[in-house]
Design goal:
The structure is a single chain. By secondary structure, this protein is an alpha/beta fold. It has one domain: TIM Barrel (Alpha-Beta Barrel). Helices cover 27% and strands 20% of the residues. It contains ten helices and 17 strands. The chain is globular and about 55 Å long.
C-alpha cells in the first residue's frame, strides 16, 4: 500500500483502531511481548529508517509503469509486468502506514475519473483484450473510498469486458474494519459478474482481532475469495512457531496462504529484513513439518526489480560479497516483457543470457540483531 513522504521520511500514520489494539496488547501481554512488538514494529516510525544501506536499496520496489497513450490521452495509474494481469492505482491513500510498505514512499495521489476511465479503455483495447484477463486494484488502499472504487469497477465493466477477475489489495480489515459496512457490501453485490478477490497482509497471529475477522467474513459473504501474502519481518514473524500458527489460523478462516515475501530492500527499511537464507530455511521447515495443512503453505517469494521470483534450490546463482547482493535466476524473458509492456526499461540490476532470460541482482538482508525504538516506545497520540 502507499503513504507519503515528509522531507524524505515516510510519514507515520496509525489508525485509531490500531492504536487501541496496540494499547490492548501492551496491557494484556506487556510492552516487551512478541504480541505488542508484532504490531508496534509494523507501524511506529523508527530512527533506524534514516540508515541507508547501499545502491540496491531504493525508494520504490520496481519500475513497471505503462507509458502509453490511448485516445490521444496519456494513460496514467497503471503498471504491467505480467501477461494476463494489469495493475491499477486509483489512490495512494491508506488508513495506516505499514513501515515496510513496498509503495510507502510513493507520492500521495488520487486519480481523476477521466484518467480512470481512460485506463480502463486501454485495458479493453483491441491490442490487449486477448491477453488481459484480470486487474489488481491497489494503491494505497482501494477500500478507503467506496465511491471511487464503485466508479472504477463500473468503468472496467463497461470498457474492458475481457477483465473477468478483479483483485483488490487492502488492509482496511486490519486498519479500520468498520469501513466494511452495508454500503460497501451492497456496492460489491452489483459486480457479481466479476470474480472478486481480496489480497491482504496478515503478518502475525495477534492480528486476528474479532473485528477484523468479522469484516473478512462480511466480504466473503458477498463472494470475495481472500488470500494472504505476508512479508517476512525481523522481530515480527521471522520464526517457525509464529508462521506455523499464522498459516494454521489462515486455514481456519478460509484464507489462502499465497506468498511469504522476503522484505523488499526499500530505502531505510533494512532493519525489517532478514537474510534470504533465513527465509529459505523457514520455508523448508514449514513445508515439511506436518503441523498444519499442506493447503496452507505459502510460496517463498522475492519481489525483485523485474517482478516476483519464487525461490527454489537453484534460484540463487551468484553472490557479491562487496555489496551483500545475490543474483537470482528468473523465468522472465525480455521479449515477452516488451510485448506486454513496450515502454518497460531493463533495470541496471539485470543480466541476460543468449535466449533473453533475465537474471537480476537483489540486495540481501541480515540476521544481525538491531536495537529498535519500538522496544519500550510509546504509541503517539497524534499522526
Amino acid at each position: 500500500m502507499a503513504g507519503t513522504k515528509i522531507k524524505d521520511q515516510f510519514k507515520e500514520l496509525i489508525s485509531p483502531f490500531l492504536k487501541s489494539k496496540m494499547e490492548e496488547a501492551k496491557k494484556n501481554y506487556g510492552e516487551g511481548s512478541s504480541e505488542y512488538l508484532a504490531i508496534a514494529k509494523q507501524y511506529i516510525q523508527d530512527p533506524l529508517e534514516t540508515k541507508i544501506v547501499g545502491g540496491l536499496e531504493k525508494p520504490r520496489h520496481y519500475q513497471s509503469e505503462v507509458r502509453a497513450y490511448y485516445d490521444n490521452k496519456q494513460v496514467k495509474g497503471i503498471e504491467r509486468l505480467y501477461k494476463r494481469t494489469i495493475l491499477l492505482e486509483p489512490t495512494t491513500v491508506c488508513a495506516a502506514h505499514c513501515r515496510w510498505c513496498v509503495r510507502g514512499q510513493y507520492p500521495v495521489e488520487t486519480m481523476s475519473k477521466d484518467n480512470i476511465s481512460n485506463a480502463t479503455k486501454y485495458m479493453g483495447s483491441d491490442e490487449r483484450r486477448e491477453e488481459l484477463k484480470e486487474v489488481l486494484i491497489t494503491g494505497g488502499d482501494p477500500l478507503m473510498s467506496i465511491p471511487l472504487l464503485a466508479f472504477t469497477l463500473n468503468e472496467i465493466k463497461k470498457n474492458a469486458p475481457n477483465i473477468k477477475i478483479v483483485r483488490i489489495a487492502s488492509r482496511v480489515p486490519f486498519h479500520d474494519p468498520e469501513r466494511i459496512n452495508n454500503t460497501m457490501l451492497e456496492m460489491f453485490s452489483d459486480f457479481s459478474d466479476f470474480r472478486l478477490e481480496l489480497g491482504t497482509h496478515i503478518n502475525h497471529p495477534v492480528e486476528f482481532w474479532k473485528e477484523s475477522v468479522e469484516s473478512l467474513k462480511k466480504l466473503q459473504s458477498v463472494g470475495f475469495r481472500i488470500y494472504n501474502q505476508n512479508p517476512l519481518l525481523k522481530g515480527v514473524n521471522d520464526n517457525f512457531q509464529t508462521l506455523s500458527e499464522l498459516y494454521s489460523n489462515l486455514r481456519d478462516y478460509d484464507i489462502e496462504s499465497h506468498y511469504l515475501f522476503h522484505a523488499v530492500p526499500l530505502r531505510g527499511m533494512s532493519h525489517h529484513r532478514t537474510s534470504v537464507k533465513k527465509g529459505i530455511d523457514l520455508s523448508n521447515d514449514l513445508s515439511s513439518c506436518g503441523e498444519f495443512s499442506g493447503r496452507a503453505k505459502a510460496k517463498y517469494c522475492i519481489l525483485s526489480d523485474i517482478g516476483k521470483i519464487i525461490v527454489y534450490q537453484d534460484t540463487i546463482v551468484d553472490r557479491r560479497e562487496k555489496d551483500n547482493s545475490i543474483l537470482l535466476k528468473s523465468g522472465f524473458n525480455i521479449k515477452n516483457r516488451l510485448q506486454w509492456n513496450p515502454s518497460w526499461e531493463k533495470p541496471d540490476s539485470v543480466e541476460m543470457d543468449e535466449d533473453g532470460t533475465m537474471y537480476v541482482w537483489y540486495l540481501d538482508g541480515s540476521d544481525d540483531k538491531v536495537e529498535s525504538i519500538t522496544q519500550g516506545s510509546q504509541v503517539s497520540s497524534q499522526h
